[in-house]
Amino acid sequence: MNDWELLQDYARHGSEAAFQTLVERYLNLVHSVASRHVRDTQLAEEVCQAVFILMARKARTLKEGIVLSGWLFRTTRFVAARALRGEQRRQRREQEACEMQTLTTSDENWRRIEPNLDEALEHLGAADRNLLLLRFYEGRNHKEAGAALGLSEDAARKRGTRALERLRHWFAGRGIALSATVLAAALASNAVQAAPAGLAESVFAATGKATGATLPGLAGDTLNAWRLAKTKVTALWAGIGVGVALLIVPMAQHLKWQHDTAATGMAPQDAPSTAVANVASSQKLFDRRATASAKKRGGTLRLHVVAKDSGEPVAGARLAIVKVPNWEQTYDQSTDENGICDIELPANLGRLDVGVLSPGWGARFATWKRLDDDPIPAEYTLRVERVTNSVGGWIRDGNGKPVSGATIWLEFGGTGDAS
C-alpha cells in the first residue's frame, strides 16, 4: 500500500498495522533530521515521538497527493525548533559530545555539510526540496521520485540536477565549495542513518497513550503553535483581501463600462460617474506607483501570455502585478498585439507575482519567491485557459431562508506557476 492508502486506513479504521508501517517506513528519516537539529539523542527521540503523534492527529486532514516525506521533514524541523527553546542551556554544555556521537562517518565532505544540511534544504522551494528528499532521504530512483511528484523520469532527473545545483550554491555562499556530484554522493551515503534500537516501540507506545485531550508536552505545544500560526495567516490574508478588493472593484467597474460602451455605442462621457471617478482615482494611484518604480529599475521581465490550448498569443490581457518588499500592486498593464508585456523590476525586489486577470481567461499567476537562488528570467511564458464555464448557487440559513450580503471566498488549486 502507498502512503495515502495507509493514512486513509489508519484515519478511517484506526489500523495500527497501517500506522506501524508508516512509522517503520519513515522513522529513520525523521530521526536523522531531528538528530541533526537538536544534537541530543534523548531529545531527538522525544521529537520523533511528537512528530508521529502529530501525524496520527493530522491523518484525517492531510490531502491526497501529499508527499509524506516532505510533510514529515518540515514537521520534524518545526517540532525540533520548539524543543530546542527549552534545551538551549543543556545543548551548549553537551554540544561537543553530541557532535561526536552523531558523527558516524570520517568523510570530510560530510563533516562540512552535515551541520547545516537541513537548513539548506529548508531554503529550497517545496518542489526541489521534496524531490531531493525522495531521492536521497527515501532512496528512490528518478522514475519513482518523478511518479510521486507527477513528473516523468526525465523531468525528475533534470529538476534533481537543478535542485542539487541550488543546494551547492547555498553551501558555496557559506564558504563550503563542493561539486554537485560530491554533494549527491555525501547525501546518498549519510543523509539518513539508522535510528536507535527500541525507538520504534517507544513511538508506538507514546502514540497509543496520546488519546483525546491528553498529549505529551512537546506534541501539545507544537499543535497549539500550529493553530496560532493558522489564525495569524487567516487574519493576514483577510487584510490583504480587503486591499486587493479595493483595487479590483474599480477595475471591474471599468471593464463593465468598456463592455457596455462597446455593446451600446454609449459615448465615454455618458458612462456612470461613480465608475469613472473610481477608475480615475485608481489610475492616479497606478501612475504614482509606476513613476516610483521607474526610479529604481532592476531589470525587465518580458512576459509572454499565450492560450494554453493553441499556443496563440493573447492580446490585451489585463495583468495583476505584485512586487515585494513594498507590496506594490498594479493592475494597469496589459499585453500588446503579440501577447507581450515588459515589466520593470525594482533593484530591491524580494518577490514577484505576475498574473492574468482578464475577462474570458482563467486567472493564472507566476511567482518567484527566492530570488537569490532562483532569479527572475529575462523572459517567461504564462499559459492561460479560456473560460467556458461558470458556477452559481444559493446560500440559505438553517430554516431555508435566503442569506443576503454574505461574503463569498473562492479558492482554486493549480492556478500558479511557482519558480
Summed up, what is this model?
By secondary structure, the protein is of the alpha/beta class. Helices cover 55% and strands 11% of the residues.
Describe the protein.
There is one protein chain. This protein is α/β, with parallel strands linked by helices. It folds into two domains: 3-218, no CATH class; 296-418, Carboxypeptidase-like, regulatory domain (Immunoglobulin-like, Sandwich). 55% of the residues lie in helices and 11% in strands. The chain has 14 helices and eight strands. The chain has helices spanning 3-13, 16-38, 41-58, 68-85, 88-102, 108-113, 117-122, 126-137, 142-149, 153-172, 180-190, 199-209, 217-264, 273-294, and strands at 297-307, 319-324, 328-330, 340-346, 351-356, 364-368, 379-384, 416-418. The strands form two sheets. A five-stranded mixed β-sheet has the order 3-2-5-6-8. A hairpin with a 3-residue loop joins strand 2 and strand 3. Helix 2 (16-38) packs across helix 3, helix 3 crosses helix 12 and helix 9 (142-149) crosses helix 10. The two termini are 32 Å apart. The model is unreliable at 95-106, 243-247, 262-280 and 282-297 (pLDDT under 50).
> Please, how many domains?
2
Q: Helix count?
A: 14
Strand order of the largest sheet: 3-2-5-6-8
Average per-residue pLDDT, rounded, comes to 77
Which value, in Å, is the CA radius of gyration?
26 Å
Distance between the amino and carboxyl termini: 32 Å
Proportion of beta-strand residues: 5-15%
Low-confidence stretches: 95-106, 243-247, 262-280, 282-297
